[in-house]
Specification:
This protein is an alpha+beta fold. It contains six helices and 15 strands. Helix 3 runs antiparallel to helix 4 and helix 4 packs across helix 5. 31% of the residues are buried.
Length: 444
Amino acid sequence: MKISLKKSGLLVAAGILSTASFAQNTKEASIEGTTPLGSATQYRTWSIGVGAGVTSLQNIAKFNNGGYDKLDWNLGYSAYIKKQISPSFGLKATYFGGKTAGYDNSDKQTGFETKTPWSVALSGEFLAANTNWRFFNSFIKPYASIGVGVMNAETAAIAGGNKGEYGDSYSKIYVPADFGLKFAVAKGINFELGYQLNWANQRFDNRTVDQQYKNDLFTYAHAGLEFALGSSSKPALNNSNPVATLVNDYTVKYDDLKAQNDALNAKNQALQGQLDGLNNDLKDDDGDGVANKYDKCPGTPSGVQVDGSGCPIVVKNETKVVEKVVVTEADRKVVADAIKNLEFDLGKATIRPTSYATLNKVAALLIEKNFSLKLAGHTDNTGSRELNMRLSKERAESVKAYLVSQGANASRIEATGYGPDQPIASNKNAAGRQQNRRVEFTLY
């Protein structure tokens, strides 16, 4: 099998240099469900690999080819199981088998052939791309590994173009050094291109110990596939980059915080709209003391006396009889019941229908006995003082408007808002704040 070792070396080098151009700078599904500094249980850490290629005494360093002028390329095959310790480092147990041959000259009359039924080695493998902080997660991952193992081999001499009998099998220590590229072709699957240089020490090339070439080296150029073991719902640790995991975690948290911030901004805008509406409702453009919302006669000239609906009061020239106002306990009970049952919608001045019955009794009392009534709105200290002052004033005005709608004399009803300035209980607890949220009725 005629293969140019120089060309193979150039292709491998070109592949390593092209890593940057194939780097992926987008999110990958393999990082989903993982967290920075998370435990190994978030990943698949075991994998298996199979490969096949060619062997020869040739090597890219052109060091110690055993003195053979003609070196054949022969079939080699391998398999391994690997435990990934971190994204960039793992330990693997490797099996290798194959055949290697060489000749003293091109006519292949004399030489050797060595077959390797089996060899096993334990190696440490380093993935360069998974420590690269410049790229998010690389599609091409350069790797290198070195280890130590035991090789079983049998060597036969070739003389006169004929191969002799294989000698006794022997086992010896050997050191495999492997480097190449892993291509992340799918989730948990890598395609590998590698070049492995094996130091087999002596006897491998059929040269005796006392000859010149004592340190036997042979090459194994190979391709193969690596499969991550375990649930496909987990990413493979050997295809994970800590930077990718960190960036993904940051992005998810940023998006979550941004969504929360957008929701708060939308809520604040809605509240600001409500506040602006309250401000507009409480404006008194004509200065007659009645808010625009309740003013049925807008534009009243300054100084004109108006009733509770904002309309001018017509004063007739007639003799006024001053009567003494007497407020009985029964009258006070009607007012007390109205205060007790008075309820508004939360944060608004809208009176709830459950309060109408007792307010109707107060209106009837005002009409029957011509009483005057002072309405004083109060709040707790929750929220801004400005908003509480407006809300207390608006609630008192709302009660006044309802009583007027039931026939009460608007000129005899005064509505004032005091906000949180006159508490009757502590604002430090819910019960106290509930007592402070009230509208007081004073008959006179």
